[in-house]
Amino acid sequence: MKVLHLAPGGELCGIATYTTNLMGHFKEKCNHTLFEIPPKLEISRLNEREILSFFDDFLNKAKDYDVIHIQNEYGLFCGSHPLSFGLKVYYKILLGLKKNKKKCFTTLHSEPVFLKALGLLNFEERKCARMWRKIYKLFTAENNIHAICHTNVSQNKFIRSGMRNVHVITHGVISRDIDHRRSLKRKDDSVVLSLFGFISEYKGHDLALSVMDLLPKNFKLSIIGGRHPDSSSNEIGRVLKLANELGLSDRVLITGWVTPGEADYYQQNSDICLAPYQATELSASGAITWSLTSGKPVIASNINSFKSINQKHNCMLLCNRSDRLEWVWAIKKVAEDINLRKRLIDNSRKYCKDNSWTNICKQHMELYSE
Prior knowledge:
Blueprint: E1 2-8, H1 14-24, E2 31-37, H2 40-43, H3 48-62, E3 67-72, H4 83-99, E4 103-108, H5 123-136, E5 145-149, H6 152-160, E6 166-168, E7 191-196, H7 205-212, E8 219-224, H8 235-245, E9 252-254, H9 260-268, E10 272-275, H10 286-292, E11 298-301, H11 304-313, E12 317-319, H12 324-336, H13 338-354, H14 357-369
Parallel strand pairs: 1-2, 1-3, 3-4, 4-5, 5-6, 7-8, 7-10, 8-9, 10-11, 11-12
């Protein structure tokens, strides 16, 4: 079986990492090729006609493959143009694959948030909603066009938006061998919290800092990550400014972008991993899976994607995403209760084993082969 993947490339993108892990764990069961979507900066230089032409080349290449697998975040196809144009491009890709009678899968990494803002004057969102109605009608067994999402909650939302032929496959978890010899011996009673992943407003760095302001001074925060490569905004400066305003500058560390080995080091030398996400539309998070493999207890927001993880494995302590006092209580509880820490860590290991990339690829193979 020959499978062609359409996804971003590179090392500094969550979906690119997801695709690399997916393609790398099928072993020799089928042949996989990546057709790389250009980086945001590069595709932003293209006009609409050039973007459409680029994806026409993809459709021509797809004719030689048995299965097509698209990784979709809604902004991947639009460059510097409106999101509605990106949806138009995605629609044309699906139409071309339908015409060529190709079995097609799209992994939808987030829910269609533009359906929430359909006020009279929200012209762009209304355009997106109209295009979405065209898109979801293509997802039928007859067309052999399938959607994959990561949770039952997301599946229900896609179905309610009009889509059919929606499958659930959990986000895969990579295995990690952490060198425990790199753990630092502390000379004080500090408790180190860590927050892993690209710095972005939806990941709750502001909340983490406001929680730190309520914790005793022996609590420290390591922010393991930097600005997303597609962003040119002031995320790092904004976090530093807030930390300074709260008098936390000497208790907060921002590492900037790190290699996997450096991430291992910082997480190994933390006591608790935090994931205070504020976005509710995520179907999954690669960063949370990284924290679950760290061997440290995880405290996270009680958003749907994290609640889905916890339903079976109970591997995180979940808090209201905006309640600072609950976060303070949870952090102190985990820091003081050795039995709770052990239970969370043991349950995380079970979750990671059950959802290893090897097991996730087996589920993909079953879908590909149906």
